[in-house]
Amino acid sequence: MVVAFMMINYADKSVLGLAAVPLMDELGIDKSTYGLISSAFYALFSVSGLVVGLLSARWSTRTLLLVMAALWAVAQLPALAASVPALIAARLLLGAAEGPAASMSMHALYAWFPPGRRGMPSALQIGGAALGTAVSAPLLTWLIVNLGWRSAFIALAITSATWCLVWYAVGKDGPYGGAAGAAGAVGEADAGSPPARKAGARDGAPPAGGAPAPPLSRLLLSGTVVGGVLSAFGSHWALAMSSAWLPVYLQTQLGMAATSASVTISAVSAFSLVLLLTVPAFVDRRKRRGRPGRAIDGFAQGLAVLVSGAALALLPFAEQRPLQLVLVALAFACHAVALPLHYVTTAAVVPAARRGAVFGVVAATGTLPGMFVPYLTGRLVDGAASEATGYSIAFLLSAVVMAVCGAVAMAAIRPQRDARALGGEG
Prior knowledge:
The chain is mostly helical. It is built from 20 helices and no strands. The chain has helices at residues 2-18, 20-27, 31-40, 45-55, 61-75, 84-98, 101-110, 119-147, 149-170, 178-191, 216-220, 223-252, 258-288, 293-314, 321-333, 338-349, 352-366, 373-383, 387-412, 415-422.
């Protein structure tokens, strides 16, 4: 259900980009205005992620996910009015409802798995995002081409509502959350079985009889958390550009038809999914064998963002179609590896009682690029001498930002060191 939740989440994100060309043509809007509509999605995204992360100490994650998905269904409906204000309102509501989605669904997932077993579940959760794009791109494009772009929004509203009904029936909170999670790391290791949640335990409560969790500010300023935020920042920079502009770029700059562009996007998402299912699993195996190493936690995150940035820098200069497609795949797939791993390293240094709040703050800061990257890209394309030049400038700027984020992540992330200092699970 968590994977399905993330699949819907990313289908919601991608639908505007898939519908961008017919939508801009019908409404007669320029790329700057379209970029503004895309950026509206992230206007409340980070704030809501932060607020809900702090509330997660008191509210059940089962309830939080249910409310979020219900709002996703409602948020698709204003788009049917087919006006710029309605589209902005729809994306504002959707962004507010999806801001906490990744962090809270990860928090819910971690409540079902002990430390040392979270890399693959994290990859599956983030993999749901890649799978959602891979599956939804051709289906939504078919609806857009054959039934009009509004039909894609209606389909997503129905899908979110259906998920809510199923989740209401089967969704539960796991035994490794909050106070139980703090005890579970020891209990599971000693007894080999998951701990039972103590009566009255809440996600934000400190472990009974244990030392109080460090202040939130100290946790957030640790090198591992800062490095994880930067790897997420670089990854979300590429993600914001791809969800808003990759379908448009493929059609207007590489000359693809809408269906061909959707197949390319599906292939990129499938490649991303392969990386998500292999790299975190490799990291998990090394940890279980007692060989985490200084580099393994931060190196994979930083390198993933660096590779994506390098591919973006080279893309404007590629002339052969096969090379262009390879660079598109590297640029918009490799960065995704950082998304599950930055949660894994953050969880390693943060006590379970603080995990929901820290995840909310990490998600709020790591996703900030979405607030301005789509609009900035539209402005650069509209203001350049040609669209091709505008995309080149946007790609090169993205490459510089991602290179800095990746390099700092590789240097700063030290989970073992910070876990000892902060009382994390390690």
